[in-house]
Write a structure and sequence with these properties.
This is HNH endonuclease. It comes from Nocardioides zeae. Residues 1-20 are annotated as: Disordered. The protein is an alpha+beta fold. The protein has helices at 11-19, 54-70; strands at residues 23-28, 31-35, 41-45, 48-52. It has one domain (11-70). The chain has a 4-stranded antiparallel beta sheet with strand order 1-2-3-4, with helices on both faces.
């Protein structure tokens, strides 16, 4: 996690992610992908929360991880 890919999580959301097995990543400022331990995916953003397939959620998680590993834009 770095300043380029972090976003504020409410205490409850942080606990879900940390202790309950949920996965969450910031896709873009204000946009997140969540994957529940049961494989339910959700995309969240200014327009609300929308369900997505487990495959789509895992794709967004992997893309966010790849961006995080590459570092902030313009760092290379």
């Amino acid at each position: 996690t770095g300043t380029h890919n972090s976003g504020p999580l409410a205490r409850r959301n942080h606990r879900w992610k940390t202790h309950a097995g949920y996965q969450a990543r910031q896709r873009a400022p204000g946009h997140y992908v969540w994957l529940t331990p049961n494989g339910l995916g959700f995309l969240t953003g200014p327009s609300g929360t929308h369900p997505c397939s487990e495959m789509e959620a895992r794709l967004h998680l992997a893309l966010a991880d790849r961006r995080a590993a590459a570092g902030p834009p313009g760092a290379g």
